[in-house]
Amino acid sequence: MSEPVPVPAPVPAPESDLDWAALALPDAAGEGARIARRLARTREGRWAGESALGPPRPGEPTLFDGAVALRHARPRCLLPRYTNGELDHPNLAIAEAEVARWPAGYALVRELIDTFNPILDAEVPRERWAEARGSSSHFDKRRFGLVFATYYDPRGLAQAFVHEAAHQKLFGLGVLVERADRIVVNDPERLYPSPIVLDRPRPMTAVLHGEYSFIHVTELLLRMIEAQAERGDDPRERLALRTFLERNVQRLTPGLETIREHIETDAAGERFVGAFVEWAEDVLRRGREWLERSPA
User: Fold this and answer.
1) pTM of the model
2) Which of 143, 186, 189 has its CA nearest to residue 164?
3) What is the rounded average pLDDT for all residues in the chain?
């Protein structure tokens, strides 16, 4: 775990001058994430301003080049199933190292999350950690940059870091889950099949959030799979990564088609969604190709 270091201040730019196609894509410099955070600061309403917890303070444990503070945001978790976890568990650093396999994903997390609250899941006791896979994660609806996630599986946590950071980026750019200030102009009352929440249709903003966040996760998975193949270790880990990838490709493929057919955008959104769809198609193509040539 690293000590806090100064985080570069966002560079102001008129919204009319922004490259919305570039903003749709992750970049290793983290410029798009910094712009999204700056825009979040200027928005009115519940997402305006900095996290009430603020950036890392001297002496606090951190991850991601000292930009993400490891903290307990409140004494107790809101759901009784979860409790605050250790701030110094080695799985946290392992997860960060997995995210670092994708520099653009690493920059996304570094620039958009300022507080990570590790949590424990009562339904996954410690004696099951060696076999358990995945991570339960969520964001704080009132504090931009604050996320929670379990860490019994460090590679699952790595995915959670990227997943939640992608959500934060869309929030900063003006797309909330149930409505949007820009990019998406579909009527919030009109509902569509969700690639993630399968038991009920969702507004197009929610559909985009699900697709956008999990395409980021899928890109990270491809990088993790490549690294795992180079190491040639633990066939159980390879199977777990394959399972994650297969599930994502299966559900994100129709999700992308829903967006392509039904999303309605403003001028910024036309460029943003066009670039995102092109990238998502490439991610899913590479995922399918790996699954086809790699035995289960």
Assistant:
1) 0.92
2) 143
3) 91
Give the count of beta carbons closer than 10 Å to the beta carbon of residue 22: 14
Instruction: Note the pLDDT tens digit of each residue in 67-124.
Output: 999 999 999 998 899 999 999 999 999 999 999 999 999 999 999 999 999 999 999 9
Query: Are 245 and 221 in contact, with CB atoms under 8 Å apart?
Result: yes
The rounded distance, in Å, linking the Cα atoms of 82 and 250 is 30
Burial class (CB in 10 A: 0-12, 13-18, 19+), 94: middle
HEC-encoded secondary structure of the chain: CECCCCCCCCCCCCHHHCCHHHHCCCCCCCHHHHHHHHHHHHCCCCCCCCCCCCCCCCCCCEECCCCEEECCCCCCCCCCCEEECCCCCHHHHHHHHHHCCCHHHHHHHHHHCCEEEEEEECCCCHHHCCCCCCCCEEECCCCCCEEEEECCCHHHHHHHHHHHHHHHHHHHHCECCCCECCCECCCCCCEECCCCCCCCCEEHHHHHHHHHHHHHHHHHHHHHHHHHHHHCCCHHHHHHHHHHHHHHHHHHHHHHHHHHHHCCECHHHHHHHHHHHHHHHHHHHHHHHHHHHCCC
Strands 82-84 and 68-70, by their bridges, are: unpaired
Number of Cα atoms under 13 Å in the Cβ half of residue 79 = 13
Count of positions (residues) in the chain: 296
| 269 contacts 20 by C-beta, under 8 angstroms | yes
CA distance 20 to 36: 11
Pairing of strands 115-121, 82-84: antiparallel
Question: How many beta carbons lie within 10 A of that of residue 267, not counting itself?
Answer: 11
For residues 183 and 272, the answer to whether their CB atoms sit within 8 Å is yes
